[in-house]
Amino acid sequence: MPHRTQSFSKLAEELIGDFRGIPLEEPARMKRRPTRELKDLIEELLVKHHIGTRSPEDSVREKWAEFVGPANASYSHVANIDPRGRLLILASHSIVRSELGLHKATLLAKIRQLPGCGHVRELLIRAG
Questions:
Q1: Strand ranges for the chain from DSSP E
Q2: Which of 48, 49, 73, 102 is deepest in the core (most CB within 10 A)?
Q3: Would 51 be classed as within a structural domain?
Q4: 61: pLDDT confidence band, cut at 50, 70 and 90?
């Protein structure tokens, strides 16, 4: 008959270890996660980080100079889109930040028409 190991909760393991006088070998704040197949993890990472596919940020970056003009594009760039649908734009000059701020609604409308960018709901213009 094969030997089965019983898994206990972290609290139960601590109590059993204290009773038997065996110190806990893992850090108290460590989370145990079930073992997963490597191919599933790699696939998940490829999708999450848009490896091998075009990301929405790439679509915006390609059209950025066309949207804001070459002068403003040379002082600004698209950073990323966060999970809440906010596109972060970094502008290195205060006048360019002001100019982009004035045209936020127009820019947002153009960006939302790009493939994969329909979920963008707000533009954040920051110094950078």
A1: 76-81, 86-91, 122-127
A2: 73
A3: no
A4: very high
